[in-house]
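User: Hi! Is it possible to get a structure for several chains at once, not just one? Here's what I have:
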Amino acid sequence: AQSVTQPDIHITVSEGASLELRCNYSYGATPYLFWYVQSPGQGLQLLLKYFSGDTLVQGIKGFEAEFKRSQSSFNLRKPSVHWSDAAEYFCAVGLVLNSGYSTLTFGKGTMLLVSP
Amino acid sequence: DVKVTQSSRYLVKRTGEKVFLECVQDMDHENMFWYRQDPGLGLRLIYFSYDVKMKEKGDIPEGYSVSREKKERFSLILESASTNQTSMYLCASGAPGGTGELFFGEGSRLTVL
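Assistant: Yes, the chains can be modeled jointly so their relative placement is included. Here is the combined structure:
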Protein backbone atom coordinates (compact mmCIF):
# COMPACT_ATOMS: atom_id res chain seq x y z
CA ALA A 1 0.00 0.00 0.00
CA GLN A 2 1.13 3.52 -0.66
CA SER A 3 2.30 5.66 2.24
CA VAL A 4 3.63 9.14 2.79
CA THR A 5 6.14 10.26 5.41
CA GLN A 6 6.67 13.82 6.49
CA PRO A 7 9.57 13.57 8.94
CA ASP A 8 9.19 17.04 10.44
CA ILE A 9 6.18 17.70 12.66
CA HIS A 10 7.09 21.35 13.22
CA ILE A 11 9.47 23.70 11.47
CA THR A 12 10.26 27.28 12.43
CA VAL A 13 11.69 29.60 9.79
CA SER A 14 12.54 33.27 9.99
CA GLU A 15 10.62 35.56 7.69
CA GLY A 16 12.59 36.03 4.49
CA ALA A 17 14.56 32.81 4.91
CA SER A 18 14.30 29.86 2.56
CA LEU A 19 12.13 26.86 3.29
CA GLU A 20 12.24 23.16 2.50
CA LEU A 21 9.62 20.72 3.72
CA ARG A 22 10.42 17.06 3.29
CA CYS A 23 8.17 14.35 1.92
CA ASN A 24 8.97 10.72 1.19
CA TYR A 25 6.55 8.28 -0.37
CA SER A 26 6.23 4.58 -0.82
CA TYR A 27 4.48 3.49 -3.98
CA GLY A 28 5.17 0.82 -6.57
CA ALA A 29 4.49 2.78 -9.72
CA THR A 30 5.11 6.36 -10.76
CA PRO A 31 3.05 8.30 -8.26
CA TYR A 32 0.78 11.26 -8.53
CA LEU A 33 2.11 13.64 -5.88
CA PHE A 34 0.54 16.65 -4.26
CA TRP A 35 1.23 19.33 -1.70
CA TYR A 36 -1.70 20.93 0.09
CA VAL A 37 -1.74 23.78 2.59
CA GLN A 38 -4.20 24.32 5.41
CA SER A 39 -4.54 27.65 7.15
CA PRO A 40 -6.06 27.66 10.63
CA GLY A 41 -9.77 26.85 10.56
CA GLN A 42 -9.79 26.25 6.83
CA GLY A 43 -9.94 23.34 4.44
CA LEU A 44 -7.03 22.17 2.34
CA GLN A 45 -5.86 24.15 -0.67
CA LEU A 46 -3.80 22.61 -3.46
CA LEU A 47 -0.33 24.18 -3.79
CA LEU A 48 1.03 22.06 -6.60
CA LYS A 49 0.96 18.62 -8.17
CA TYR A 50 3.20 16.27 -10.10
CA PHE A 51 1.88 13.74 -12.58
CA SER A 52 4.68 13.30 -15.11
CA GLY A 53 7.24 15.22 -17.15
CA ASP A 54 9.43 17.93 -15.70
CA THR A 55 10.42 16.90 -12.20
CA LEU A 56 10.49 20.49 -10.94
CA VAL A 57 6.95 21.67 -10.45
CA GLN A 58 5.85 25.25 -9.86
CA GLY A 59 2.84 26.01 -7.72
CA ILE A 60 0.91 28.89 -6.29
CA LYS A 61 2.21 31.42 -3.76
CA GLY A 62 5.81 31.02 -4.98
CA PHE A 63 6.17 27.38 -3.97
CA GLU A 64 7.93 24.69 -5.97
CA ALA A 65 8.62 21.01 -5.46
CA GLU A 66 11.04 18.56 -6.99
CA PHE A 67 10.26 14.92 -7.67
CA LYS A 68 13.27 12.65 -7.16
CA ARG A 69 12.49 9.09 -8.08
CA SER A 70 15.81 7.72 -6.79
CA GLN A 71 15.10 9.12 -3.34
CA SER A 72 11.31 8.60 -3.39
CA SER A 73 11.00 12.23 -2.38
CA PHE A 74 8.88 15.22 -3.28
CA ASN A 75 10.20 18.09 -1.19
CA LEU A 76 8.49 21.46 -1.12
CA ARG A 77 10.57 24.63 -1.32
CA LYS A 78 10.17 28.37 -1.20
CA PRO A 79 13.08 30.80 -1.55
CA SER A 80 11.75 33.47 0.82
CA VAL A 81 9.07 32.78 3.42
CA HIS A 82 6.39 35.33 4.30
CA TRP A 83 4.54 35.50 7.61
CA SER A 84 1.35 34.54 5.77
CA ASP A 85 2.91 31.17 4.88
CA ALA A 86 2.48 30.00 8.48
CA ALA A 87 0.14 27.02 8.12
CA GLU A 88 0.11 23.25 8.07
CA TYR A 89 1.42 21.55 4.95
CA PHE A 90 0.40 18.11 3.75
CA CYS A 91 2.08 15.92 1.20
CA ALA A 92 -0.13 13.33 -0.52
CA VAL A 93 0.21 10.50 -2.99
CA GLY A 94 -2.58 9.56 -5.36
CA LEU A 95 -3.62 6.09 -6.32
CA VAL A 96 -5.69 5.68 -9.46
CA LEU A 97 -7.43 2.34 -9.68
CA ASN A 98 -8.39 0.44 -12.79
CA SER A 99 -11.96 1.53 -12.34
CA GLY A 100 -10.81 5.11 -12.87
CA TYR A 101 -11.56 6.45 -9.45
CA SER A 102 -8.81 7.71 -7.25
CA THR A 103 -7.93 8.18 -3.62
CA LEU A 104 -5.27 10.21 -1.87
CA THR A 105 -3.12 9.08 1.01
CA PHE A 106 -1.82 11.94 3.14
CA GLY A 107 1.20 12.43 5.31
CA LYS A 108 0.70 13.55 8.89
CA GLY A 109 1.54 17.12 8.06
CA THR A 110 4.24 19.65 8.90
CA MET A 111 3.34 22.76 10.85
CA LEU A 112 5.26 25.78 9.63
CA LEU A 113 5.88 28.58 12.07
CA VAL A 114 7.32 31.85 10.79
CA SER A 115 9.29 34.01 13.20
CA PRO A 116 9.74 37.76 12.69
CA ASP B 1 -13.88 27.48 -9.18
CA VAL B 2 -14.84 24.21 -7.62
CA LYS B 3 -16.99 24.67 -4.58
CA VAL B 4 -17.33 22.05 -1.89
CA THR B 5 -19.70 23.13 0.84
CA GLN B 6 -20.04 21.53 4.22
CA SER B 7 -23.26 22.64 5.81
CA SER B 8 -22.08 22.78 9.41
CA ARG B 9 -18.76 24.32 10.43
CA TYR B 10 -19.16 23.59 14.14
CA LEU B 11 -21.36 21.05 15.89
CA VAL B 12 -21.69 19.98 19.51
CA LYS B 13 -23.50 16.71 20.15
CA ARG B 14 -24.03 14.39 23.06
CA THR B 15 -22.87 10.80 23.31
CA GLY B 16 -25.33 8.45 21.64
CA GLU B 17 -26.86 11.06 19.36
CA LYS B 18 -27.18 10.43 15.63
CA VAL B 19 -25.15 12.95 13.67
CA PHE B 20 -25.40 13.91 10.01
CA LEU B 21 -22.62 15.79 8.25
CA GLU B 22 -23.64 17.08 4.85
CA CYS B 23 -21.43 17.91 1.89
CA VAL B 24 -22.39 19.35 -1.50
CA GLN B 25 -20.18 19.94 -4.52
CA ASP B 26 -21.02 21.93 -7.62
CA MET B 27 -18.57 20.51 -10.18
CA ASP B 28 -20.41 17.37 -11.21
CA HIS B 29 -17.60 15.23 -9.80
CA GLU B 30 -18.18 11.51 -9.64
CA ASN B 31 -15.88 10.94 -6.68
CA MET B 32 -16.53 12.20 -3.17
CA PHE B 33 -14.66 11.53 0.05
CA TRP B 34 -14.90 11.92 3.80
CA TYR B 35 -11.68 12.33 5.77
CA ARG B 36 -11.13 12.72 9.45
CA GLN B 37 -8.33 15.01 10.65
CA ASP B 38 -6.73 14.73 14.08
CA PRO B 39 -3.58 16.42 15.41
CA GLY B 40 -0.52 14.31 14.78
CA LEU B 41 -2.45 11.81 12.67
CA GLY B 42 -3.02 13.83 9.52
CA LEU B 43 -5.98 13.00 7.32
CA ARG B 44 -7.47 9.53 7.39
CA LEU B 45 -9.98 8.32 4.85
CA ILE B 46 -13.30 7.20 6.30
CA TYR B 47 -15.43 6.45 3.22
CA PHE B 48 -15.55 7.40 -0.40
CA SER B 49 -18.04 7.14 -3.21
CA TYR B 50 -17.44 6.97 -6.93
CA ASP B 51 -21.03 7.04 -8.05
CA VAL B 52 -24.52 7.61 -6.79
CA LYS B 53 -25.53 4.90 -4.33
CA MET B 54 -22.02 3.48 -4.42
CA LYS B 55 -19.67 3.57 -1.45
CA GLU B 56 -16.35 2.12 -0.45
CA LYS B 57 -14.75 1.83 2.96
CA GLY B 58 -11.62 3.79 3.60
CA ASP B 59 -9.05 3.22 6.30
CA ILE B 60 -11.22 3.94 9.36
CA PRO B 61 -14.90 3.21 8.56
CA GLU B 62 -15.87 1.82 11.96
CA GLY B 63 -18.61 3.81 13.65
CA TYR B 64 -19.53 5.65 10.44
CA SER B 65 -21.81 5.20 7.48
CA VAL B 66 -22.44 7.29 4.37
CA SER B 67 -25.21 8.09 1.97
CA ARG B 68 -25.05 9.26 -1.62
CA GLU B 69 -28.54 9.61 -3.09
CA LYS B 70 -27.59 12.40 -5.49
CA LYS B 71 -24.36 12.98 -7.37
CA GLU B 72 -23.67 16.33 -5.76
CA ARG B 73 -24.35 15.34 -2.17
CA PHE B 74 -22.42 13.00 0.13
CA SER B 75 -23.44 12.59 3.75
CA LEU B 76 -21.48 11.16 6.64
CA ILE B 77 -23.54 9.58 9.40
CA LEU B 78 -22.54 8.78 12.94
CA GLU B 79 -25.24 6.38 14.09
CA SER B 80 -24.39 6.76 17.78
CA ALA B 81 -21.80 9.43 18.42
CA SER B 82 -19.01 8.73 20.87
CA THR B 83 -16.45 11.01 22.46
CA ASN B 84 -13.64 9.47 20.41
CA GLN B 85 -15.36 10.78 17.30
CA THR B 86 -14.64 14.35 18.35
CA SER B 87 -12.64 15.57 15.39
CA MET B 88 -12.44 17.72 12.28
CA TYR B 89 -14.23 16.16 9.33
CA LEU B 90 -13.25 17.14 5.80
CA CYS B 91 -15.27 16.44 2.68
CA ALA B 92 -13.63 16.40 -0.74
CA SER B 93 -14.61 15.79 -4.33
CA GLY B 94 -12.62 14.85 -7.41
CA ALA B 95 -13.04 13.87 -11.00
CA PRO B 96 -12.13 10.41 -12.29
CA GLY B 97 -9.78 9.85 -15.16
CA GLY B 98 -6.39 9.85 -13.60
CA THR B 99 -5.49 13.07 -11.87
CA GLY B 100 -6.41 12.22 -8.31
CA GLU B 101 -6.66 15.89 -7.44
CA LEU B 102 -9.16 16.58 -4.69
CA PHE B 103 -11.05 19.73 -3.78
CA PHE B 104 -11.85 20.21 -0.13
CA GLY B 105 -14.56 21.85 1.89
CA GLU B 106 -13.71 24.01 4.88
CA GLY B 107 -14.36 21.25 7.35
CA SER B 108 -16.86 20.44 10.10
CA ARG B 109 -15.55 20.47 13.62
CA LEU B 110 -17.56 18.02 15.70
CA THR B 111 -17.42 17.90 19.49
CA VAL B 112 -19.11 14.97 21.22
CA LEU B 113 -19.73 15.48 24.92
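The first strand of chain B starts at residue 4 and ends at 6. Chain B has a mean pLDDT of 92.

User: Great, thank you!
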